Sigma 54-interacting transcriptional regulator (Pendulispora rubella), 436 residues
Amino acid sequence: MDENHATKARVLHWFVRGGSVRTPDGKTLTVDVDPIVIGRDEGAQISIPDPEVSSIHCELRAVNEGIQVRDLGSTNGTFIGLVRVKEAVVTTVSELTVGSSRLVIEPAAKRRVDVGFSNHFGSLVGNSPRMRRVFSILEKVAPTSLSVLILGETGTGKEVVAKSVHDASPQRNGPFVVVDCGSIPPMLAESLLFGHERGAFTGAHERRKGALGEADGGTLFLDELGELPLDLQPKLLRALAERQIKRVGGSQVEPIDVRVLAATRRDLGREMNAGRFRSDLFFRIAQVRVELPALRERLSDLPSLVEEVCRRVGKPEHAQTVIAWLEGHMGSHDWPGNVRELVNVASVAATLAGEPGAIDDVLTLTREQPLDAARPSGPATAFSEAKRTAIASFEREYFTDLTKRAGGNVSEMARQSGMERHHVRAYLRKYSIDKQ
Ligand SMILES: Nc1ncnc2c1ncn2[C@@H]1O[C@H](COP(=O)(O)OP(=O)(O)OP(=O)(O)O)[C@@H](O)[C@H]1O
């Protein structure tokens, strides 16, 4: 990371109103910026053995205005006084009811939270207080062997966090193995994770290592953890707890030394309460929870992200033009695709920003034209035709080059370009680029 990023660090703290919560058995806990989970499960920070409380019921955390209460998909609901709430901020002493148990929330005065000086971690950048706090947590946990669950909407940078944690860990020279839990074929799931012996099932011609075995001495990143098939969950939990695996069709156990990182877009609280995700596995993997806020909640990150993107595409001199354009034209955009969407828009803009007026055309085209129909809808002027040709040639060049760099692997292309796999495929089809 260049010095530029460090010298631009300005925001060093934020203000929150935490306080305390008194549990039904009379204990008092401090509520701070890291969430406190309330539930029936023994792993919850406030564990309440009340059958009407869901295993993961709700959570409390300090935010700017007071103590935020968030229901996590409980069956019987979370109440403040007599009002059932999904999400609310408590600013005065209030009674919180879960099942038939009562807790008392008491907000305290606002206090300053030091968010650390760092405005980057690995290949992540961000100036907002929330991201600075994420970076300071990551700096602390990366060198440990703690497992980390990374939460956030699509495109918020979960995979980059995982890779950056691996790169800053003692296992950095070991393998970094990614398993996309959402695309595990059910029939092969167990073998994919734990490996198999030769002849274990039809088609098992070779003895194979699974993802856990491959990750030995390194990091296993379970992407889309919420999609992990239910029947695999207890097996994975056992393997992680006992630090050993048994291949499908095998009888011997092999020791493994693997650090686990995981990510999910799904609300795992809801999944657990619906019985689709095991809470014991959740607490085993979520020793540390890191939440990446949506980009719309941290727009102050935009300039540093654009600078980073311009640097990546080799056009650092265009950063200020792109930032000014985004502020002027997309100030009210709420970035549903988060940083991935910003990276896409900013890289196209940065690449063509040298031509006067080009950004308007580029962004209008990339945002409004379906990929397969980049054709003028009305009478084309020579100017717009020229722009279209420039974009087409940029896209063709970009994806041809990307295909070479990723050896034709679409997942790798998606990773490198920060796009969804189906978008990458659509561009390859559009320009008839051969994956070989
Ligand atoms: N803080 C950041 N700094 C720099 N680049 C970032 C940051 N966050 C995300 N990115 C970029 O945004 C793109 C998307 O990131 P990533 O693939 O990690 O998102 P994700 O949360 O894993 O998305 P999904 O849930 O869809 O898999 C990547 O190109 C990544 O480099």
User: Anything to note?
Assistant: The longest strand covers residues 101-107.
